[in-house]
Amino acid sequence: MAFLQVVKLAFALLALTTPSWAVGVAPGQIKNFVTFGDSYTDSSYYPTADGGYAWPTWAAMYGDLNLYGFARSGATCSNLLTYRPFPPIMGWQLPAYLNETRNGTLELNPDETIYTIWIGTNDLGVNALLTGSDAPDTSIVQVRQCTVDVLKILYESGARNFIMQNILPLDLTILYSNYSYPNRYWDLERNTTGWNVYMKELVRAGNEITSLMLEALVPALPGAHIASFDSYGLFTDMYNNPQNYFNGTAPYNVTGCINSCVHTMNSTAAPTCTVANGTDADSFLWYDELHPSQQSDRIVAREMTAVMMGEDNQWTTWLS
């Protein structure tokens, strides 16, 4: 009897320390996905900011999923924190989604639908945290709290399945690199090394803050399935190991871009632009000085599709 009691105690302790079998989504469960974010995710036009199709368009094809895209180029999480004249998640994208669900235009089964949130590039960048926003008291903590609040509002509206994509390593983009040049996004004087260091710290701090906030939020959202997708890790690996990801006819290129335009400071002269054409483009990590390439977006789509299909994925951690 004593032996049986020990076994029962051992199994009871194991149950307390072992993750629930209900963590994540089941294979074949998800039929629809709804996206919120900026130009990295905006699938509402073509060609998109990567020169082709945004990753959600590829994911919808790869997984035979129904896509409902609310992400819009230029967006921040909230224009009250980092103002830009584009549709933010809080002020436009989320209200547009909620309006469609409330008036019956959009009817989605919560069990069969997953919501993706990928925002932060514009919050952290030029004319925002990096150079100073219109709300000078805004901090990285507030803009990342805004991102988590998006998930909370969606949950309160009935959503139950989520993927939070963290911020990719913006310091590796041409715009924020230490070897940057005057370009279409910023053609004024700047300290490229200073920008590179500051952006690196903003991204790392923002991702860690988001991770801690999500972990703290999970117990307050019963029945939710929340995945943390490591965009930072994926793009860092693509940067360090391009041979594993790119298959173009040009040499691998992670420090240049497909569509490069070098501007001249304090001048009205036309920029000097170069474009990689055809299959050469599939050798590049970046499309232009800020945006991922079409090949990079196909890779994001491949990995995100695996998550939505309930498959194991090395870049994803299910928190609930």
UniProtKB/TrEMBL annotation:
Coiled coil: none
Keyword annotations of the record: Hydrolase, Signal
Name assigned to this protein: Carbohydrate esterase family 16 protein
Keyword Oxidoreductase part of the UniProt annotation: no
GO molecular function, one term: hydrolase activity, acting on ester bonds
Taxonomic placement: Eukaryota, Fungi, Dikarya, Basidiomycota, Agaricomycotina
Keyword Ubl conjugation: no
Signal sequence, start to end: 1-22
